């Protein structure tokens, strides 16, 4: 008979606590987010969320109870410091769901419930939906974008929730694709905007997007991108029955904008931000700059991702964060509309002519808060008393700016920048429009100013932000609260006198509330009293309460509660007043930013000698003494930048659409190429340019292929990247475009590279017919000047002196006779024997350049190690450059010992040595 083995019963698994059950229920609704669960003064995280957050934030990972027999990992962050922790988690690519208490204890009692108070997610924070100043870069936009589709068409919508900007652009006009199948139009807009987050339909193939790894991409249900639902959502949000008044939108545009709006509503739990009316961007409104060109020109960020060293950093003289954001947006998207460019220039010119007004205005703008982001926080319910004060301050500054600009201008002549007396120029039409925008919301300041105290808390729930005398009811309640405090102080004095304990104090903490606190040595005296009720004993003190103290505490709490409740009512009323004119406030903030940009541009023009470009609707580009705006700013004050002219597309005998630029490396070719591209960017952004004179025809597309790197992740060599970018230029450039190419074909065999460069140059001249700067080391291309009427040869001027070269950084007419590569190699520090060997091989190759060169014979006749030792013991190959006899004689000279006759003889001797050196080097 088989023996029976008893099996122990499994341990009984306890059900989760009510609090943990609530947490699990909330977490189930937000599985893709880290859940910040509010408990008192801390946000707690549990399970895997806690492990992830603890690792990223570097905080302690602890345990709290068990779930299904396993310890529950836990970590937490204090409420008062939560923004800094959230910023680190969001920067690491995580979404954060904020779970707050949604009912009061009184409401819980009324419904007869037990257990934890109701909690729910009140907001989901993602990279593209941030509005807090501590989480945002002040001088940069934080765009949330959405990709919409309808049939074969697609569009991109984007918004900055913190400022209210809301745009959409149809991408169907440009269906060209790169070699990986990525839509070029989409990449162009994405690189222009650099959004923090992109929303795409679930199942969207993003693997072919070259920029996908650099962007937070969030998938959403395809139903969110339905264009019909998008139309309804937009109409409901803006409170209109039709979108016709906002523009003409394709179905793809409605899909994108509707999806973006739906995502905001989902993450903000219905608490929608203030957004400006949706604006459609036409594809020809902005100068088309492809991604490679943006990287090359470092418009708003350097290749290392830094703001410092970029074009934006070099020219930004804005006084406000909003002004810097606007300037950055203008440099990222220069205009193609001549009238709009001229309108921006007129503002800059007006401020230059009215220098005193400009200086006074900029001094006021120095204290301007970020009104755009303050009004957004208030309308979304995230704001506080300081945001109200920021708006009041901003509106007062706006009022002052209006007065400064509208003050009598014609009462007396002023001295203009040329030092002559002249009447002030007429105010531009755009200036009048901006002043009207500033005036519109000024009445709100009169509502805010009398309500706000001088010292304001960060949060409204902290109270104390309403000024004494603003509300009589609040003042009465405060008086009761303050009277209770006075009575509390009197009670403490009476207890100390009656017990004869001078050190007796009435204190407060969150556990016991108000209590009598005495040292342990006096405890027995109070223990024997019927008046005092023992509450707590610690190592140093003993704590008591009394019936009188408890009643007084209750009265004080009631008065304080009533005071805070009344303050919160006032705060809600003020916030409602802000919301009622939020659009006007946003327009006023935008107007101040535009004035800031214009004033900063005027200061830049004055201090850095920038000039107003003459903008024309023609294929012309004439620059006199142009300079590189970034490099010039980086040079020491005592080192002037060498300016250069550039003339393309002009009429006359010297008409040329293409400059073929030759010359050695380090002579300044790349600087010259980039500076002309930067001048175009600045001019079409409506700014002044670094030159003595500039006449610029509107450019529709700007291409700059200066330098390249490989793309190993996609299996593309440097040469392949170069060819892909060159193909994009040749396929897309129009007669109104501007192309900059540097050393095309250098990444392959010499004859292959020469052939590619030759064919590219011919195509640009004959087919694209666009303004072009073409730098090359292939001197054979200079022969094309004879065959191509619109091509001119130029070179970087170089001067030779005693076997060395001096770079003059000047562009001159004509072709360079050589590239001086060996000289540059010497500057780089190559060994003498390598330099000498290179000189010998170069001489052999140049001697045979008009016929076949026997490479094998060159190798036999010029062995690498055919060298002799110089006086310093270094190997010096035959023919290598070494100190001349002239220099050796000068080194040995003792001037103080020479007689006049000996000095004269030495000069003749040195002259003879120099003549011999020249003969030896022939």
Description:
- The chain has 922 residues and is an alpha/beta fold.
- It has 6 domains: 18-125, DNA repair protein MutS, domain I (MutS, DNA mismatch repair protein, domain I); 138-283, 2-Layer Sandwich (Nucleotidyltransferase, domain 5); 336-441 and 581-608, MutS, DNA mismatch repair protein, Chain A, domain 3 (Orthogonal Bundle); 472-560, MutS, DNA mismatch repair protein, Chain A, domain 3; 614-823, Rossmann fold, CATH 3.40.50; 883-922.
- It is built from 29 helices and 31 strands.
- Strands 13-25-26-27-23-28-29 form a 7-stranded mixed β-sheet, with helices on both faces.
- β26 (738-742), α24 (750-768) and β27 (771-775) form a beta-alpha-beta unit.
- α13 (371-380) packs antiparallel against α14 and α14 crosses α20.
Low-confidence segments? 1-6, 175-182, 420-424, 862-881
Category by helix and strand content: alpha/beta
Amino- and carboxy-terminal Cα gap: 117 Å
Quaternary structure classification = single chain
Question: Cα-atom Rg, whole angstroms?
Answer: 37 Å
Note the beta-strand portion.
15-25%
Q: Estimate percent helicity.
A: 40-55%
Describe the largest sheet. 7 strands, mixed
In total, the number of strands is: 31
Count of alpha/pi helices: 29
CATH topology of the largest domain: Rossmann fold
CATH fourth-tier homologous superfamily of the largest domain: P-loop containing nucleotide triphosphate hydrolases
Shape: elongated
On the 0 to 100 scale, the average pLDDT is 85
CATH 2nd-level architecture of the largest domain = 3-Layer(aba) Sandwich
GO molecular function: ATP binding; ATP-dependent DNA damage sensor activity; damaged DNA binding; hydrolase activity; mismatched DNA binding
Family: Belongs to the DNA mismatch repair MutS family.
Protein name: DNA mismatch repair protein MutS
Domain DNA mismatch repair proteins mutS family: 737-753
């Amino acid at each position: 008979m088989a023996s029976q083995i008893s099996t122990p019963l499994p341990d009984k698994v306890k059900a989760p606590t009510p609090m943990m059950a609530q947490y699990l229920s909330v977490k189930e609704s937000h599985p893709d987010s880290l859940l910040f669960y509010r408990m008192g003064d801390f946000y707690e995280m549990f399970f895997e969320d806690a492990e992830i957050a603890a690792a990223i934030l570097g905080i302690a990972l602890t345990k709290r109870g068990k779930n299904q027999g396993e310890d529950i990992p836990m970590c937490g962050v204090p409420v008062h410091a939560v923004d800094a922790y959230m910023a680190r988690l969001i920067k690491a690519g995580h979404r954060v769901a904020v779970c707050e208490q949604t009912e009061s204890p009184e409401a819980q009692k009324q419904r007869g419930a037990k257990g934890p108070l109701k909690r729910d997610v009140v907001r989901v924070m993602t990279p593209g939906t941030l509005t807090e100043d501590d989480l945002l870069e002040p001088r940069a936009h934080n765009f949330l974008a959405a990709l919409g589709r309808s049939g074969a068409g697609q569009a991109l919508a984007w918004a900055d929730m913190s400022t209210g900007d809301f745009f959409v652009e149809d991408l169907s006009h440009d269906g060209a694709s790169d070699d990986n199948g990525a839509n070029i139009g989409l990449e162009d807009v994405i690189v222009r905007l650099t959004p923090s987050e992109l929303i795409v339909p679930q199942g969207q193939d993003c693997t072919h997007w070259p920029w996908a790894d650099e962007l937070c991409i969030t998938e959403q249900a395809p139903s969110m991108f339905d264009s019909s639902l998008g139309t309804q959502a937009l109409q409901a949000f803006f409170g209109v029955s039709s979108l016709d008044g906002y523009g003409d939108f394709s179905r793809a545009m409605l899909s994108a904008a509707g999806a973006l709006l739906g995502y905001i509503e989902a993450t903000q739990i219905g608490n929608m931000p203030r957004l400006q009316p949706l604006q459609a961007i036409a594809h020809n409104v902005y100068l088309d700059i492809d991604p490679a060109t943006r990287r090359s020109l470092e418009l708003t960020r350097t290749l290392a991702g830094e703001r410092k060293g970029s074009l934006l950093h070099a020219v930004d003289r804005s006084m406000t964060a909003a002004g810097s954001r606007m300037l950055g947006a203008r440099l990222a998207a220069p205009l193609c509309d001549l009238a709009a460019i001229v309108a921006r220039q007129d503002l800059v010119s007006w401020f230059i002519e009215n220098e005193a007004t400009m200086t006074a205005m900029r001094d006021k703008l120095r204290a301007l808060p970020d009104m755009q982001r303050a009004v957004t926080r208030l309308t979304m319910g995230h704001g506080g008393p300081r945001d109200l004060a920021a708006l009041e301050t901003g509106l007062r500054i706006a009022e002052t700016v209006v007065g400064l600009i509208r003050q009598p201008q014609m009462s007396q002549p002023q001295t203009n920048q040329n030092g002559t007396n002249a009447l002030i120029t007429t105010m531009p039409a755009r200036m009048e429009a901006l002043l009207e925008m500033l005036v519109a919301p000024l009445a709100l300041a009169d509502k805010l100013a009398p309500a706000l105290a001088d010292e304001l808390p960060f949060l409204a729930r902290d109270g104390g932000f309403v000024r004494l005398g603003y509300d009589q009811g609040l003042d009465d309640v405060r008086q009761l609260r303050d009277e209770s405090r006075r009575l509390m102080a009197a009670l403490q004095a009476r207890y100390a006198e009656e017990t004869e304990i001078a050190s007796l104090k009435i204190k407060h903490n969150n556990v016991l509330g108000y209590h009598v606190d005495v040292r342990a040595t006096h405890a027995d005296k109070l223990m024997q009293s019927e008046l005092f009720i023992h509450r707590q004993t610690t190592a140093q003190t003993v704590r008591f309460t009394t019936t009188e103290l408890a009643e007084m505490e209750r009265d004080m709490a009631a008065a304080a509660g009533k005071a805070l409740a009344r303050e919160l009512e006032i705060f809600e009323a003020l916030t409602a007043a802000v919301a009622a004119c939020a659009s006007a406030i946003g327009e006023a903030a935008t107007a101040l930013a535009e004035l800031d940009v214009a004033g900063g541009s005027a200061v830049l023009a004055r201090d850095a000698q920038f000039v107003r470009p003459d903008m024309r609707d023609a294929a012309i580009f004439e620059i006199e003494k142009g300079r590189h705006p970034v490099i010039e700013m980086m040079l020491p004050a005592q080192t002037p930048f060498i300016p250069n002219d550039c003339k393309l597309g002009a009429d006359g005998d010297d008409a040329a659409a293409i400059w073929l630029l030759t010359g050695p490396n380090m002579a300044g070719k790349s600087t010259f190429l980039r500076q002309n591209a930067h001048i175009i960017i600045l001019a079409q952004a409506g700014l002044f340019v670094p030159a003595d004179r500039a006449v610029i025809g509107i450019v529709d597309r700007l291409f700059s292929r200066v330098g390249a790197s490989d793309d190993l992740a996609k299996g593309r060599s440097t040469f392949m990247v170069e060819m892909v970018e060159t193909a994009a230029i040749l396929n897309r450039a129009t007669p109104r475009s501007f192309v900059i190419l540097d050393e095309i074909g250098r990444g392959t065999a010499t004859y292959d590279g020469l052939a590619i460069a030759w064919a590219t140059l011919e195509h640009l001249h004959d087919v694209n017919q666009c303004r072009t700067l073409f730098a090359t080391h292939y001197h054979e291309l200079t022969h094309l000047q004879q065959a191509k009427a619109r091509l001119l040869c130029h070179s970087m001027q170089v001067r030779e002196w005693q076997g060395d070269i001096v770079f003059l950084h000047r562009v001159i007419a004509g072709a360079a006779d050589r590239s001086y590569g060996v000289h540059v190699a010497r500057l780089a520090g190559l060994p003498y024997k390598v330099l000498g060997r290179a000189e010998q091989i170069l001489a052999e190759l140049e001697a045979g350049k008009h016929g076949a060169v026997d490479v094998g014979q060159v190798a036999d006749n010029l062995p690498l190690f055919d060298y002799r030792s110089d006086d310093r013991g270094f190997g010096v190959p035959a023919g290598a450059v070494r100190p001349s006899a002239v220099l050796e004689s000068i080194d040995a000279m003792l001037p103080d010992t020479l007689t006049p006759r000996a000095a004269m003889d030495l000069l003749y001797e040195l002259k003879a040595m120099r003549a011999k050196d020249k003969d030896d080097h022939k």
